[in-house]
Design brief:
Elements lengths: L3 H7 L4 E8 L12 E8 L7 E4 L2 E7 H20 L3 H27 L3 H26 L2 H27 L7 H7 L1 H6 L6 H21 L5 H32 L12 H17 L22 H8 L8 H17 L4 H13 L3
Parallel strand pairs: 2-4
Antiparallel strand pairs: 1-2, 3-4
Bound molecules: zinc ion (ZN).
Length: 359
């Protein structure tokens, strides 16, 4: 039985859009009492995990994260069409990626703490970037094939996150996939000095399960080379999101004196190690059996998102182009806080709805 009330209770602040039953038993060997549901939601706090309540798993598909992935993909595709040289493309992509990161992070900050610095960060985004974001989206409207490619890349990446969570759900029940994988990646783990960390091992095995699942699901829509490129971009998207959240926590801890970081979460080093193993696996993957459709044609072009792009996007995330933007942001933020700290909710809601929720 789906208990939507319970789901909403467990995820306070999240906007739950739908809850659907997942039939894991059709493919996997799981106990009869295990139930799983896909919870599609929009949550700025940023959860992308599964919630377990006795024998029931609620696996989250967070469209806030999917939206972020879409912005990363759009940035790369836009840069590719706007500049002819490699340097030109990198410069434009880094600028647009930084905008997407700053905006997504501002919303994450505000979801964590309705305080001065999160409001300042959001207002800075609006002052400095809103016009450019609107122009980018107007440009995308005129280029439907590029818009489609951005959406496709985001769907692939959020599917990878979702399949990773399904893997956690199966991990203790159906070992047919995981045991051979653990054996196969032993060398890769030793090379990153991670072979004795059971938690990291589970994460990596679940990543590899997810890559396989996406290879299978998308194999008739993309050529072999493009499957690898989409998968590489998708793991880079995941790393970008993890880095963004980590940076948000550090920023809040540094600026809000009484901010206490919530428990849980992984060190960013873990995410980098996971990324390295995933990329090595994608590059070595030998495409055979059902995951390889000979002569499959690309349905869309690929947005190549990589580690360099994420690193350059993160650089200078808390800087402003113009000092007066920061002064105005502080004035407005103090104004909001002196009346009602929740008043700014309306600004965040409206700003998101106009551009960022657009599908
Ligand atoms: Zn995990």
């Amino acid at each position: 039985m789906i208990d939507e009330e319970l789901v909403r209770f467990m995820l306070p602040g999240a906007h739950v859009l739908s809850v659907d039953e997942l039939n894991l038993r059709s493919v996997h060997t799981v106990p009869a009492e295990l139930e799983a549901y896909r919870v599609t939601m929009y949550d700025r706090y940023g959860a992308a995990a599964s919630i377990r309540e006795r024998n029931t798993f609620y696996i989250i598909r967070n469209l806030f994260i999917a939206t972020f992935f879409r912005h990363l993909a759009n940035a790369v595709l836009y840069a590719h069409h706007k500049a002819k040289t490699l340097t030109g493309r990198s410069r434009i992509a880094a600028r647009v990626v930084r905008r997407a990161m700053k905006r997504t992070q501002a919303e994450c900050l505000y979801a964590r703490r309705k305080g001065l610095y999160s409001i300042v960060s959001m207002i800075e985004c609006l002052i400095e970037y809103e016009r450019e974001n609107a122009a980018l989206y107007a440009w995308l409207d005129q280029h439907p094939e590029i818009k489609k490619a951005g959406l496709f890349a985001a769907e692939f990446a959020i599917d990878l996150v979702f399949q990773h969570e399904i893997a956690h759900c199966l991990y203790q029940y159906d070992r047919r996939f995981f045991d051979p994988v653990a054996e196969g990646i032993r060398d890769a783990l030793a090379s990153i000095d991670a072979s004795d960390d059971p938690h990291l091992l589970e994460e990596i095995e679940c990543d590899i399960f997810a890559i396989n699942a996406c290879f299978t699901d998308y194999s008739d829509r993309l050529s072999q080379a493009s499957l690898r490129r989409q998968a590489r971009s998708a793991v880079a998207c995941q790393l970008a999101y993890a880095a963004l959240l980590e940076d948000a926590e550090v920023f809040l801890a540094a600026n809000e004196t009484d901010y206490v970081r919530p428990p849980g979460g992984q060190e960013i080093e873990h995410h980098i190690q996971r990324y390295q193993v995933a990329i090595a696996y994608i590059d070595d993957f030998a495409f055979h059996g059902p995951a390889f459709v000979r002569n499959a044609k690309d349905e869309v072009s690929c947005a190549d998102i990589d580690l360099n792009l994420i690193t350059s996007g993160l650089r200078g995330l808390h800087d402003v182009r113009d000092d007066s933007s920061r002064q105005v942001a502080f004035l407005l933020a103090n104004g909001y806080l002196s009346t009602d700290s929740h008043l700014f909710d309306v600004v965040v809601e409206n700003a998101s709805r106009t551009i960022w929720m657009e599908a």
